[in-house]
Amino acid sequence: MIQTGKPIRWGILACGGIATKFADDLVHAKNGYLSAVSSRDLGRAKAFAANYGADVKAYGSYEEMLASGEIDVVYIASPHGLHYEHTMLCLEAGVHVLCEKAFAINSKQVNAMIAKAREKKLFLMEALWTRFHPSVAKLQEIIASGLIGDIKHVVADFGFKAEYDEEARWFNPHLTGGSLLDIGIYPLFISKLLLGQPLEMKATGVMAPSGVDMNCSIATKYASGATASLFSTFAAQTDTTCTVYGTLGKIYMHPRFHETKGMTLTIYDGAETVFETERKGWGYSYEADAVQEDLWAGLTENTWMTHQFSQELMGLLDEIRAQIGLTYPNE
């Protein structure tokens, strides 16, 4: 257990674009800071570390950083096809883990990661940053108030046009490409957060020449009688919004909904209210704060982003992939 209030020393494993955003936002974290970064390329690690001050250590191997004694928790920023390998590496080294979404490739890997964390009595959480955004808290507050009545339907999409390149992360099956695991996870997440586990789910996909999904469309039905329409694509720019329809009104989360600061509440008698919430930096510091609070409390699991939630979410992703015929060579 880390002494309450003691500054949390963060390490970053893999120095890609998402790592840059997370590192940028640690300046907003409450009493946490970037202590070390690692890459298989020492030059890349040094160049990354140089952006965050002379005290940030750079390592040319993940193992070296994990054994350094310089970090309390590691943020895994590698492609999701490597999350299982890298999470297990960190846990075996005795280091707490915040692992970027998607948590892994499949449920078998997620279950093994969680089992290892519990065996080692270490903290492990999927870094689905949207869960900790103030906008999501506001969304839940409005729904809980009863202003829109009972939820009957959720519509959420995420899409952008990506130039096709089979070697690029988005389209390469060996790098676990496809729209579903990369961006389709956000519409699926928000529907699960608001409506729970679906009773029925039907998915259809359009595949890229490389065999991963270019488009993925999902329809779900819930015990409450609600339904959801979810969509992701690399073929076109979509609105990337979420609308929650209730019996008395609706909530429209402004684009891009997974990181938005704004939403519009419409009551069906005509009243309309626009809300704007806080977003510090890119928006990643909120999940970092949550991890830090858990580490100070001696917890090994977050109460908002539980192991069970991640297991159930991955189970849904597994089922969708089975329905659209998406498999990966490294699973």
From TrEMBL:
Could you tell me which InterPro entries the record lists for this protein? Answer: Gfo/Idh/MocA-like_OxRdtase_N, Gfo/Idh/MocA_domain, GFO_IDH_MocA-like_dom, NAD(P)-bd_dom_sf
Residue intervals of the GFO/IDH/MocA-like oxidoreductase domain: 137-251
Q: Which domain of life is it from?
A: Bacteria
Q: Boundaries of each Gfo/Idh/MocA-like oxidoreductase N-terminal domain copy?
A: 8-125
Q: Which UniProt keywords apply?
A: Oxidoreductase
Query: Is this entry keyworded NAD?
Result: no
What is an example of a Pfam family matching this protein? GFO_IDH_MocA
Q: Which family does it belong to?
A: Belongs to the Gfo/Idh/MocA family.
- Descriptive protein name: Gfo/Idh/MocA family oxidoreductase
